[in-house]
Amino acid sequence: MQHKSSHKWLMLACVGIPIALIIIAVVFGIRSPWVYWIALAACPITHLIMMKLHKGESCH
Question: Which one of 20, 21, 26, 50 is CB 3.0 to 4.6 Å from 39, fit for a cystine?
């Protein structure tokens, strides 16, 4: 059961970080395209990190 709990928090962080970055950029009026590219790149990068952390484990 501990595995599913940690999986839930990792998924929340991996999805939440890029979304939070975009929201912060919009709220503060940051117009740099780098912010959006970083947020876009953060999605697959955090997914790869999560896969590495759970290497060899079943997600179900």
Answer: 21
Domain of 20, in residue numbers: 8-53
Residue 42 placed within a domain: yes
Give the pLDDT confidence of 27-57 residue by residue, as tens digits. Answer: 999 989 998 898 888 888 888 887 787 776 6
Helix (H, G, I), strand (E, B) or coil at 17: helix
- Residue 22 domain-assigned (yes or no): yes
Q: State whether residue 11 is helix, strand or coil.
A: helix
Q: Can you tell me the distance from the alpha carbon of 60 to that of 50, in angstroms, rounded to the nearest whole number?
A: 15
Question: Has residue 1 been placed in a domain?
Answer: no
Report how far apart, in Å, the C-alpha atoms of 29 and of each of 35, 37, 40, 42 are: 11, 16, 18, 20
